[in-house]
Design a protein that fits this description.
283 residues; single chain; alpha/beta; 24% helix; 8-stranded mixed beta sheet; Collagenase (Catalytic Domain)
């Protein structure tokens, strides 16, 4: 299935969703699904903050993830810090306050997507409080034109760039999602860092990003002062399924971006959590 046909199917499905909303989701108007992600941002008390990136990728992706984190850390606003992963690659479930990055065989090459980013919002629906990024090995390490280092580097850079709130651009940045850019635009540029500074120039009253914790010394071997070491950040009550994104014909509540290369989906989980999903389609 070609990207053009896939997008036509998605647009048709979206039009129907506006008339008959599917169970368990809220059909948004096209303006909501296509609005700039400038309104999507994490809650934090400072204009400069650190965002933990949970490493759930295998050895094929480690060097790519490290390189992309280093590239994005050339800016002053957001510092990505790689930490141990908190989910499985296949489920790629969110962890509150963090970005979880995964790779896996999500579907089969021929119909589907290269990369997928999800932004999970807090109970008020006004700030992101978790994100997941998935790299689809069915294309990026499969029998396809995208099985090359440039496509992998671009896709990781592009999807990770969505997590703090960046949208698409028509520049030399990796946030350009044209098919030509997938093979040539591998890095963030100064415009991206300026945009992040603009998004986060204000401060919030509280934080939705995870805080790095200092290790406490225990009394005696193997003891930790008798305190539970359970993660206080936990997980959102629900997580979206990747199943609906194996085939563009069944993407819920979606509308394509203006260049037709990416779909933005807005849905609500059963617990009411709002999830915004960016899906980068393969040709």
């Amino acid at each position: 299935m070609t990207r053009r046909l896939a997008q036509q199917i998605v647009i048709t499905a979206f039009a129907l969703a506006l008339v008959i909303p599917p169970l368990g989701s809220v059909a948004p108007p096209a303006t909501l699904a296509l609005q700039s992600s400038n309104s999507y941002h994490w809650e934090r008390k400072s204009s400069q903050f650190t965002l933990e990136v949970g490493n759930n990728v295998d050895g094929n992706w480690n060097s790519v993830l490290d390189a992309v984190i280093s590239d994005w850390n050339n800016g002053d606003t957001v510092t990505f810090r790689k930490v141990s992963g908190a989910t499985s690659a296949q489920s790629c479930s969110p962890k509150t306050g963090t970005v979880q990055v995964c790779n896996g065989q999500y579907g089969t090459a021929g119909v589907g997507w290269l990369g997928l980013t999800r932004l999970y919002f807090n109970s008020r629906g006004d700030h992101v409080n978790a994100a997941t990024v998935q790299m689809n090995d069915s294309y990026l390490f499969g029998n396809s034109d995208y099985n090359n280092q440039n496509a992998r580097r671009h896709t990781m850079c592009h999807e990770l760039g969505h997590t703090p709130g960046l949208d698409h651009v028509n520049t030399s940045s990796c946030m350009n999602n044209s098919n030509n850019a997938i093979f040539n635009n591998l890095f963030p540029i100064s415009d991206d860092f300026q945009k992040l500074a603009q998004i986060y120039k204000h401060s919030d009253s509280s934080d939705s990003v995870a805080k790095s914790k200092k290790k406490k010394k225990g009394k005696g071997k193997g003891k930790k002062n008798g305190k539970s070491r359970k993660n206080k950040t936990g997980k959102p009550a629900g997580s979206a399924s990747t199943q609906n994104f194996f085939d563009p014909a069944v993407v819920p509540d979606a509308a394509t971006s203006l260049d037709g290369s990416e779909t933005v989906s807005v849905e609500r989980l059963e617990d009411g959590t709002k999830v915004v999903t960016f899906v980068t389609w393969a040709e």
